[in-house]
Amino acid sequence: MALGVFDSGVGGLTVHRELVRRFESADLIYLADQAKAPYGGRLGEEIVDLTRAGCERLFDEGASVVVLACNTAASIALRRLQQTWLPGYREKIGRPVNVLGLIVPTIESVTGQPWDYEADRHGEKIEAVDVVGVFCTAATAMSRVYEIEIDKRRQDLAVFSEACPGLAGLIELGAPTEELEVVVRDHVDALRRRIGRHPDQAILGCTHYAIIADIFARALPEGTRVIDQPTAVADALERYFARHTEYDLGSSGLRRFLTTGAPGPQGDRVTQFWGAPLSFEAS
Ligand code: DGL
Hints:
It contains 11 helices and 11 strands. The longest helix has 23 residues, at about 70-95. It has 2 domains: about 1-100 and about 230-280, Rossmann fold (3-Layer(aba) Sandwich); about 105-230, Rossmann fold (3-Layer(aba) Sandwich), CATH 3.40.50.1860. By secondary structure, the chain is of the alpha/beta class. It has a 7-stranded mixed beta sheet with strand order 4-3-1-2-9-11-10, sandwiched between helices. Bound molecules: D-glutamic acid (DGL).
C-alpha cells in the first residue's frame, strides 16, 4: 500500500517533497494529470471528473490515501467526491481508502484555529484587520473557498483572492524566470491596486506557485508572511495518520512518479526545486 499524491502537473511536487521528508519510509506514488493540465480554467464538472479519475488511478496502483496536492481540485472537487463517490467506491473495492486535500490545513495555518472552530460573529470587537492575499487559479478564486472559510474563523482577517490565469501553465511549460517575474509582479500590483495596499500575509493558493516562491517573495514587500502550504499539509497529515492507523502507507520508501502526459525528464526549475533530476513514467 502507498500514499498517493495528485496534481494536474508538477505543482503537487511541492507538497510531495515535504511528504517525503516527513514520511521517509512510506511508499509514495505521484500522479500528474499533465494531459489535462492546467485545471485552473476548466469547468467545475470537468475538474470533478478529472480528479475522480486521478484518485481511481492512484487507488488502482495501491494508494490507501490520496492527497489532492492541488488547490483547484481540492476547492472544487474534494467535498463532492467525499460525499457522493467515496462511500460507494470504498464498498466496491473493499478496503479503507480516503481522499484528503490541502484547504483545511492551509486555513488552520492562516487562522491559527482548528477546522471545527467557528468564531462568535457578534461578540467580538475587532480592533484591526490584517489583509490576506490569495494568489490562485481562476477556478479556486471563483470557489471563494479562502474568503468563506477564513471569515468563519477570523473576522479580523480580510481576504482578497487574485486569480493568476496562465501562471500554472507557464510553470508547467518551464517558462524562463524573467517571464515569470513579470507575470508575478503584475498580479502583485493588481492585488495592491484592488486592496489599496499590499497584503500583510499571502497564500500561494496554487501548488505550482510554491516552485516560484522566491519570485513571489521578491515581488511582495519585505516582511510579508507567506503561508507555506506544503508544511501545513504535512503537519496536518502527521496528526491525521497518528489518529488513523487503518491506512497502510507501505514501508519500503518506494517513490514512483506517473504522468498522463509525455513521460520523461522534467524541466530545470522543477529539478532545481526538487533537488535531483526527476523523470515521470507513463501512467
Ligand atoms: N497546482 C494546482 C493548484 O494548486 C493546479 C493548477 C492548474 O492546473 O491550473 O491549483
